[in-house]
Amino acid sequence: MIAVNKNYLMNFNLMNYAGAVALILLWEIVSLSGIVNSFLFPNPFAVVTRGIELFFTNEVGIDLVSTLLKIIVAILVGGIIGFIFGVVLSQSTKLYAAFSPLLDFFRSVPATALFPLCVILFGIGDYTSFALATWICAIYFALHVAKGLRSTTEGYLLVAKSLHKSNLEIFFTVRLMEALPTIFVGLRAAVSLAVVVIIVTEMFVGTTHGLGKVLIDSAYSYDMAKLYAVILIIGLIGYVLNKIIISLEKRIVHWETK
Amino acid sequence: MVEQIILNKVSKSYKTNQGHGKKLLVLDNISLKIQKGEFVSILGPNGCGKSTLLKIIAGLDSADSGKVIFSGIDQNNKKIGYLPQSNNTLLPWLNAKENIAFALSDTKSNNETVALNKLAEFWISNYASFYPYQLSGGLKQMVGIARSSAVSDVLLFDEPLTGLDQSNSKIVENAFFKLKDGKNTAVIVSHDIDTAVLFSDKIIVLSEKPSTIRAVIPIGLGQKRTSDLRYSDAFFGLRKQVYDILTKGV
Question: In this structure, are residues A115 and A128 in contact, taking their beta carbons and an 8 Å threshold?
C-alpha cells in the first residue's frame, strides 16, 4: 500500500503549476503552427526528451556537478568572509560609516565589469568564476549582516543588559537573531547573483566543465534542443536554490514570515 | 533581599548639538528612598527624565554624580526585573515560556519549570507556547511582567500600560495587584495619574527639566488594592492632589 502524505496533498495546489502548463501549451501550439522556425524553436516534447537524454546518458552530469559545486562553494566562502566583515563593521558606528559606502559602491559595480580584471589576476578558467562569485556573495553578505546587526531593537538590548547577559550572549541570543531576516534577504540576493556570475563566466571566461560552457557549445553547434534543455536545467537550479532558502527562512525566521 | 533602594543626589546631563561640550541638565540632585515592599510611581512632564531615572536605577545608564544604592544585597550582583517602555520587549523568536526562561540563569529544564510556574502564577499558562506575534498587547505585557517577576523582587516598569486598550489595561492591572504583596518592590514610570494612584504607596512628582523632586505624595489606600478603588472618595481626593501638583504653574 502506498503511503500518502496528507499534508502534501492538502498543500498541493494545481493553480501553482497552471502558469507553467499554459506556457508549455502555448509553446507547443506556436511550434506546431509553423509560425516560427521549428529548428530555432523546437517543440517542448523534443526539449524535454533531450533534457532526459542528457541526464541518462550522463552527457552533462559532470558539468551540472561542477556548476553546482562552484555556486555552493562561492556562497559558503563568500558567506563566511562577508559574515566576518559584516560583524566587524557592525561593532563600531565610525567603522560602519567609513566602510558601508564603499561596500555599497562595490555592490553597484556590475560583476561583469570585473571580468577582464579577474582574467588578468586569476587567469582563464574556474578561478575567475569562483573569485567573482565569491566577491559578490561576500559583499552582499557583509552589507546585510552589518545592517541587520546594527538595527537591534533598543527594548531587547535593554532587557538583555538588565539581565546581566554578556556581550557574547547578547550577540548570539539577541542581535544575531534579530538580524536573521535581513541576512536572509542578503542570502537570497547573493545566491541569485552567484548563479548568474558562475554561468556567465563559464560561458565567456572559459572552463573545463560547467553548464555555462555546455550552453555556449550547444549554441555554437546549433544543438537547439540541448540549448533549451540546459537553459531549463539552469532555471531549475536557480528555482530550487531559491525554494530551499525560502523554506529555510520560513523555518528559522518563523516570527518574521507570520 | 533588597531592604531599601536609595538614590543619593543623582544628577544626569546629556550632550546637546548646540556647541561643543554644551550639556543639558536633565536630572538635578534627585534623592529618594524606596522601602522594601513599596510601590512607587514617578510622574512628571514629558521629557523630564523619568525613563532616564529608571535606567539609572536599573544600572543601564550612569549618573554624572550621585549614587544608587540597593541596601541589603551585593551591589555587583544585583538582579532587577526591568521592563522598558515599548511594545517590543519580548524576543519575537522565543515563545512566552522561552522568553521567561531566557531571563533565568539556571539549567534549561529548571528555567523552563520556573517559567511555566510564573506563567501559571499570572494566569497565562495556556499561552506558554505562543509567540509574541500571537499575543495581544496586554498578554505581551503580562509575559514581560511575569519575566521581570521571575528575575527579581525589585521591579522597574516604564509606562507599563501605554498603548493598551481598556480590556488589556485591566489584564495588566490585575498583574500589578498580584505583585503588590508586600514582598515585591516596584518603581513605575507613568504619565497616567489614575494608575499611579491605584498601584502606588508613594508618588514622586518631578518638575520640568532640569528635573527636581517637586513633591512626594503618600498614597494611603492600603496594601491590598482592587480596580473598584477607582470609585472611592479617597481615590478622587488623591487624584486631584496629584493633578494639582503636576499642573502647578501651567
Answer: yes
* B36, three cell numbers: 522594601
Phi, psi of B27 (to 5 degrees): -115, 130
**Residues of chain A positioned with their CB less than 8 A from the CB of B131:** 254-255, 258
Q: Which domains does chain A have, with CATH numbers?
A: 77-252 (1.10.3720.10)
Q: A126-140: per-residue pLDDT in tens?
A: 888 899 999 999 999
CB within 8 Å: A163 and B92: no
Which of B60, B79, B91 to probe by mutation at the A interface, max A CB count within 10 Å?
A: B91
Q: pTM of this prediction?
A: 0.84
Q: Do A159 and B79 touch (CB under 8 A)?
A: no
**C-alpha span between B209 and B25 (Å, rounded):** 7
CATH fold of B4-246 reads: Rossmann fold (3.40.50)
Of residues A234, A235, A231, A225, the one with CA closest to residue A43: A225
Instruction: Pinpoint the alpha helices (H) of A163-223.
Output: 167-170, 176-204, 211-220
Distances (CA, A) of B136 to A82, A254, B93, B121: 38, 18, 16, 19
ipTM: 0.88
The reply to whether residue A255 touches residue B92, judged by beta carbons under 8 angstroms, is: yes
With an 8 Å Cβ cutoff, are A154 and B86 in contact?
yes
Look at A173 and B102 and tell me if their CB atoms are within 8 Å: yes
pLDDT tops 80 at residue A3: no
Spatial distance between the Cα atoms of A203 and A207, rounded to a whole number of angstroms: 8
**Dihedral sign for Cα atoms in the order A57, A58, A63, A68:** positive
- Nearest chain B residue to A254 by CA distance is B93
